Fold this sequence. Notes:
The protein is of the alpha+beta class. Helix content is 42%, strand content 15%.
Amino acid sequence: MSSTDQQDQEVPTEVVQPVQVLYCEICTFPPEYCEFGSSFTRCKEWLHAAHPQLFEKYYSEEALQSKLGTLSLEAQAMLEKDTAKKEAKAEAKADAALKKKMASQVVIKRIERNKRKFVTAIHGIEVFGGSLGGQFTSDSLSDKRVDIELKKAAKFLAQKFATGASVTKNAQGQDEIVVQGDVAEEVLELIENNTGIFKGIPAGNVEIVEDKKKKAAE
């Protein structure tokens, strides 16, 4: 039998299917590892609502008794105390981050380049939750929501206004978005209407400033 015939008669190898792993929407760990995170109580609440069968598997009275049966009373008390301490620390951190965000200011600067030519610089939006971030609550922060990405915001503005937009460094060395054209009022309107990637920025934290070109000395 030729090698070609042998190849034709070979049984195809079985295709291994990828394993589907469930991840907690609160801490992003697999549910069986949530207890090692800092949001265990909220993780259990999510699992109970989203996957009740798994909740029973891990946290039913029988499952807990089986698990705790191997621990001494002292070890159980230490475990509960450590879990409560982690959660309190995570909550305090989330609250501090929320206060910092709410105190931040978004500045939309209308900059005059030449006669009747302007660019619009936007600074400060990166600290706020965008289309992936939603509205501000301590829960949304501890849910690991994503802040606005400046490059995505610049692309959004470029498409929205059919003009150039890029991320650059300002005089203070901080990142900001520079849009070609006078679109300060339009950007403010997008923020006020919670449009697209700007969803979630408090309008009260936004101000428009003028940066007019200085006239040459006569």
